[in-house]
Amino acid sequence: MTHQQITSRIRKEINVYYKSFKEKYPILRLQNLWGFLIFILSIAIVSSTAILWWKNIIPTWLMIIVNAFFFGVLHELEHDLIHWMYFKNNKVIHHFMLLVIWMLRPITINPWIRRKLHYHHHKFSGTIHDVEERGVTNGEKWSLKRFLFTPDLVIGGLLRVNSLFKDIKREMREGRLKMELGNKLKRNAVLGLIPVTIISHVILYVFVIMKILNSFSFGFIDTSNFFTGLKNVLQFLNPYIYIILLPNVLRQFCLHLITSNIHYFADVEEGNVIEQTQVLNVWWTFPFQVFCFFFGWTHAIHHFVVQETFYVRHITRKKAQKILKANGVRFNDLGTFRRANRFHEIEPL
Predict the structure, then answer these.
(1) Contact 334, 282 (CB under 8 A)
(2) 345, part of any domain
(3) pLDDT digits (tens, 9 = 90+) for 27-86
(4) Within a domain: residue 179?
(5) Cα–Cα distances in Å, from 93 out to 6, 35, 100, 297?
(6) Total domains present in the chain
(7) Is 289 inside a domain boundary?
(8) 347 lies in some domain
(9) Which of 187, 230, 244, 255 could pair with 292 as two cysteines, CB 3.0-4.6 Å apart?
C-alpha cells in the first residue's frame, strides 16, 4: 500500500471511532460550549491562584506550576481556535478568545500570524521551510545552546534566523518553493514576534540579569544603587512576571521540547503524514507532558484527523494510538534526539 492509502485508512478508522464515541456521548458535539467553558474555567483558576499568591496564602512555586498547567490547556484551546473549531460563525467571540489567550501567553507568537504558519506546517510538515517547527529548535543538533534556547523565541530566533532564511532562499532559487510564499514566510516569522513577544522576552531577560547580579555581585556591584530605577520598574512588574511570564517559560520549555522531538525534519517525504510525527509517551517525558497537556501523546493523531478538538482527541487517545501503531506510525523513537530529528539514520561522517 502507498503512504496515501495507509493515511486514508488511518483517517477513516479514527473518524469512525470519533463518530461512534460522539453518538455515545452526544454532549461532546457542543464544541462551542465546551470550548468556552474550558476558556472560562482556565482563566478562573489562573486568577484564583494569582489572588492566593498575592495574599501569601500559597507559595510562589505552587502558583507557577498551576498556572503553567492551565496556560498549557489554553495553548491547546488556541490551537483549536486556529483551526476554527469554536465560534466559526461568531467572529467576535472567536477573536476575543484568541486575544485573551494570547495576552495570557505573551511569550508566544501572534496567533493570527501563527495561523498562517501553522497551515503551512500542516501542508509542508518536516520540510526545511516548516517555519513553525524550526522556530522551536526542530532539526538542530542537541547541545547546550539548543537546551538553553528551547523556550526562547527571540534570542533563539535570532540565532537561527540566518540559516532559516538561507534555506528558504535556496528552496525558492531551486524552484521547490514559490517566491511569493517564501517571502511571506520570512515576513511572518518576524512580524509574529512584534511587539508583544519581544517586549515580554526583554522583561524576562532584564529580570534574570538582575537576579544574577543580585545573587553573585559579592559586593563588587552595588546593584541597589546602580539599578535603582530598573529595580523599581521590575518591582512594579513583579505580579506580571510571576503570574504570567514565569509559568509560561515553564510551559513553553516543555511544549517546545516535546513538539520539536515528535516532529521529524528535512528527510521526510513531502506529503507523507506517516513520516511527519511520532507518538512520544515514554514514562520519563511525563513531567514535560503535564505542562503542554500531553502534547506528545496526542499530536500525531491531529496530523491525521485535523478537525477534532483537543479534549476529544485526548479522551479517545488509546484507541487512536492503537490505530496509529497498527499502521506503522512510530512510538517513542528516542533516536530522534541523536539524529537531530531526522526520520532516517544519518550516515556517520
Answers:
(1) yes
(2) no
(3) 999 999 999 999 999 999 999 999 999 999 999 999 999 999 999 999 999 999 999 999
(4) yes
(5) 38, 11, 11, 30
(6) 1
(7) yes
(8) no
(9) 255
